[in-house]
């Protein structure tokens, strides 16, 4: 990961000072670096130790960072990772344009691999992520959203880059198709579990733990699995209250919504869904050669269920 950080620092260089300032601001704010870590772990599990793994790990981090910059503008977010978002600090125009810079820089860096398969995977992933963002936008303030539509959005918007990161590790290692597919399934399952737990924490955590404002999902009208489960399991009055809160984005009802989500067992429903995805990821990882790096992939999937931020 230190090697990846070195690539990130070098490739953020620009003759335009504001580009570097905004990019460094969001990248230096921390984050779990899960997507680059997945790529590196898969490479090591499959025996690939070439330098290109560091370049592509930085690429997926740049793509992820670009999506964060754009997301925070769309969502009008003010807090991420415990500090002001880039759009709050530098303004919306700078955040959007630097997000564009990071996307284009990522595509420049992809060329270093001299591999059309790598280009295909990453181009497909960025396109699917964009579609997922649009789907989520269309679903805002719609209390009739069901679990299938919710899963479709998070598999596009969040899990797709996890899937691409793991698949890239297999491609770099020259793995056979069955192993490549197992890696892709692992990434998709881990990414899905990660997002479901993230949505659980919006109703179970604290602002200090999460590093973001509680209730942001409700304010934005996002219908996540905890809300879907609460409406399915709650009384008519409880269901009506959640529907009203989703449609209006009124945080005045946040405390009551949280109470309903917790009282109906909706958090447990969502946690069980995440656990099923984690189990699917562990089964996929079992198809890789038995070594410490494959075992780390198994442990990573299991650890998602204990997330607090």
From TrEMBL:
CDD domains, per the entry: Trans_IPPS_HT (cd00685)
Keyword Transferase applies: yes
Reaction catalysed by this enzyme: 5 isopentenyl diphosphate + (2E,6E)-farnesyl diphosphate = all-trans-octaprenyl diphosphate + 5 diphosphate
E.C. designation(s): 2.5.1.90
A single MF term (Gene Ontology): metal ion binding
Pfam family, one: polyprenyl_synt
Keywords: Magnesium, Metal-binding, Transferase
Keyword Transferase in annotation: yes
Enzyme type, top EC level: transferase
GO biological process terms, semicolon-separated: isoprenoid biosynthetic process
Cofactor entry: Mg(2+)
Job description of the protein: Supplies octaprenyl diphosphate, the precursor for the side chain of the isoprenoid quinones ubiquinone and menaquinone.
Family to which this protein belongs: Belongs to the FPP/GGPP synthase family.
PANTHER family per record: ALL TRANS-POLYPRENYL-DIPHOSPHATE SYNTHASE PDSS1 (PTHR12001:SF69), GERANYLGERANYL PYROPHOSPHATE SYNTHASE (PTHR12001)
Protein's name according to its UniProt entry: Octaprenyl diphosphate synthase
